[in-house]
Amino acid sequence: MNTKKGGNVRKITLAISLCLGTSISAFATTQATDINTLESQIKALQQKVIDIQQKQTKELKTQSNTNTNHQLDLGQYLFWDASKTKPFGENSSSKIPISLLKVRNLFPDQSIAFGGVLETDATAWWGDSLNTTKNSNYQSGKGIYINEASLYVISNLSHLVQADMTFTGASYENPSIRDAFVTFGNLDSSPVYLTVGKNRLSFGSFANGGPWIGGITQVLFRPGHNTVSANLGFYKDGINLNAAYFQSNTQSSDFMLSGFYDGESGKFSYGANAGYMYNWIGTGMGAVSNVQNNPTSSNHVNDNQNGVVNLEGYTGYDIYLLNVGWAGTTKKETYSNNNRLGAWYVQGTVSPEIYHKNTQFSLGYQQAYNTQNIPFSMPGNEANEPEVNGIQSEITAFVTRPMFAKNNFVSLEYGYLRTYTHQHSNEITLDIYTYF
Quick one: which of 18, 25, 297, 406 is 20 to 30 A from 1 by CA? Predict the structure, then answer.
């Protein structure tokens, strides 16, 4: 082969090799760049996926917490909750506003809670024939009644405003609004509060009588539920003070002062209360249920101003409890034998645990004076609301025990009533109190 030609061939081959190498190198560089770009895009996409997943997880968690809160609202804030407080209906009816205010912060602001009570009684009564204030006869009989069916509606409207309304009825009565009031205040912020509305005045404990039958001081001197008042109250360290203003009628103003104290130390419990009512007219007290304007007979309560003083106390140790109390008027009147009238009581209770349940046994005695012309609401034939004048003494005995549920109480009660004319009346009642 020609040497010159061979050299040319080598040159051409070298040139082609250089061109191919350069092209391959450029192609490889381009490919590497594209791969790096693609990897960067994939990593960015993966990060976006992770961010989206984290956002969705956070949203689901927030939604789950929100649903949980809604369930708590329904379960604990729309209905009475046994883990938070005792049933609303178990509170003393003379201290409903402060009792509800004390548990107000167990429920959140802008919440509403419902609770209720149902009282069913099977009663039998017998004894001497007694004339009632309606000129009828009260002697013997039996009956089964729903004596109370109440629904409590408690609403926290804000940190400082609580509204309360109680709807109630009975098997022989149409439903009505028993209590309707607003309380301004919060015990976490201040011990002072103001209650305005319709409710039983905070006057007396009246811890006598039985689950159904009322004690003499309770029947005669406990205020009713129809008084519309403004009550300025104070509560701290077991001390509750009240000053209430209300109208006796369209012409006369009235006021009430009362104080309560409850304390305990170890197994000891103790307490006392005192009250003064300037005028019992317009308070719904049973003793003035037959009041008349300028009566022609001295055996009717007149509408003259007459005040009431109330003193009560209790002491207990472990399962034993003793209650004592007295209430009486401040003025002498013709209907009370030109003297002051009143009544006192003493009641003892022992509450042992029997078969793992607390069982109450209670025995009480009450005595009245100068009440010959004062009506007493009898425990039998409740649908006709019989009242008899001149009940002088009373004996009550009962046993109470929760049955079938911790808030379903069954009681067996006996009551004995005696008049100034030595007539008597007996009653026995099977009482069922159900709180819900």
Answer: 18
**C-alpha distance across the termini of the chain, in Å:** 120
The residue among 203, 143, 198 whose CA lies nearest residue 176 is 198
Residues 6+ apart with CB under 8 A from 269: 262, 263, 314, 315, 316, 317, 321
pTM for this prediction:
0.80
What integer pLDDT is reported at residue 19 of this predicted model?
A: 47
CATH second-level architecture of 116-149+205-216+230-435?
Answer: Beta Barrel (2.40)
Contacts of 183 (CB under 8 A, 6+ apart): 97, 100, 101, 161, 162, 163, 164, 193, 194, 195
pLDDT, mean over the chain: 86
- Dump pLDDT digits (tens) for 366-414: 999 999 999 999 999 988 889 999 999 999 999 999 999 999 999 999 9
The per-residue pLDDT for 5 is: 47
DSSP 357: E
**Nearest-angstrom CA–CA distance, 354 and 277:** 42
Instruction: Report whether 434 contacts 117 (CB < 8 A).
Output: yes
What average pLDDT score do residues 350-360 get? Answer: 95
Spatial neighbors of 134 by CB under 8 A, at least 6 apart, are 386, 387
Query: E strands of 318-371, at which residues?
Result: 320-329, 342-350, 353-354, 357-358, 360-369
**pLDDT-wise least confident of 8-12, 72-76, 120-124:** 72-76
Task: Enumerate the domain spans of the chain.
Answer: 1-74, 116-149+205-216+230-435
243 phi, psi to nearest 5 deg: -135, 115
Candidates 347, 426, 432, 433; CA nearest to 379 is 426
CA gap 333, 374 in Å, rounded: 12
